[in-house]
Amino acid sequence: MSAVPTLPPELRADCAACAGLCCLIPPFDAVQGFGFDKPAQTACRHLCTDNRCGVHEQLADMGHVGCIAFDCLGAGQHLSALARERFGDVDWRGRPEVRQWLFDAYAPLRRVHDWRAQLWLAQRVAGVDTQALADELAAQGSQAPEWDDARWQSLRERVEALLAPLARK
Prior knowledge:
The chain is an all-alpha fold. It contains five helices and no strands. The protein starts with 64 loop residues before the first helix and ends with a helix.
């Protein structure tokens, strides 16, 4: 039995380099293992002012298994770094323009990181040649929030075309 490959660092969550975006932007649903319902674009009640989870050590005991399982695939720290470049910091609490920009940019950047992880795994596990598209997404992914619908459609079709043969196996 072969070992499961480990994603490269840029596709693994680094919570220390993130502004707590997974605890702020997506909604939580109790039935999905998040302990309670939380609307999108609202900070989790356990998110501290240093953007760390105040109950991290007790997540499983408190019924927050969804938090434990969640993986942004590196999108959180990537978006936090982009915000620092653009605004000088990631103070979403005190700067509405930063907050709105993060809200708008999170989903597109998450999608790019999802695709990159899928392509990386397809290449490592199934030998599918995904390198050119993965490199393109890595190089241009920071612009994802500004892509138009045609660009998204083109990329989605290219990713799906590369991964489709794996679905039939």
